[in-house]
Amino acid sequence: MRLRRKLHRLIVNATPGAPARDYFALFQIQPELTLDEATLEQSYHALLAQFHPDLYAGQSQMEQRMAAQLCADINSAYQTLAHEVTRAEYLLSRAGVDLEAAERQGVGGEFLMKQIMLRERLEETPSDDVAAREALHAEITTLYQSSRDGCAQSIAASDWSSAARCWQEMCFLSKLQEAARPEAR
């Protein structure tokens, strides 16, 4: 019963196809692409401290299962919101954007050419040329930040097609950014 009373306070999402709980509501933060990651982490740890399955070891089997499921939901929500690319994807899904259709539509020829040129430069840059890799990483990071900011603005304006395009750019650029890290090989 104790767990049920605590669970009653958490917001449940009834939107078909959406996760059972609204991740932003679960952590009591605004549904935006840019968020205070320290606040997210604090909320995460507070929820885990409140609902960890070990706290319900002496309770009924049902309460133990509910606590385990809630803990899994909290972990899944945190993993989704902790990273900008997955957070953007979640926001788009939450708004009902068909991400598969958006991916079929693509990002545009100019961005693809830029991305191909950056990948070629990365492949041509020796892994031990730290200065060149740092410069390339900085260039990619600037492009990523521009796409992220465009995505955040588009989400705030409910311009879902533009937000989906920017999200796709973020996906490409985050992978390229990781590959371009001077220590990456």
Describe the model.
With 185 residues, the protein is an all-alpha fold. The protein folds into 2 domains: 2-82, Helix Hairpins (Orthogonal Bundle), CATH 1.10.287.110; 99-180, Up-down Bundle (Monooxygenase), CATH 1.20.1280.20. It is 70% helix and 0% strand. The protein has helices spanning 2-8, 23-27, 37-51, 61-81, 84-94, 99-105, 109-124, 130-156, 160-180. The protein is globular.
Summary tags:
globular; 185 residues; mainly alpha; 2 domains; Monooxygenase
| CATH architecture annotation of the largest domain | Up-down Bundle
Report helical residue fraction: over 70%
CATH secondary-structure class of the largest domain? Mainly Alpha
Total number of beta strands: 0
Looking at CATH, which topology of the largest domain would you report?
A: Monooxygenase
Give the rounded overall mean pLDDT.
87
Determine Rg (CA atoms, Å): 20 Å
Compact summary:
The protein is an all-alpha fold. Helices cover 70% and strands 0% of the residues. The protein has helices spanning 2-8, 23-27, 37-51, 61-81, 84-94, 99-105, 109-124, 130-156, 160-180.
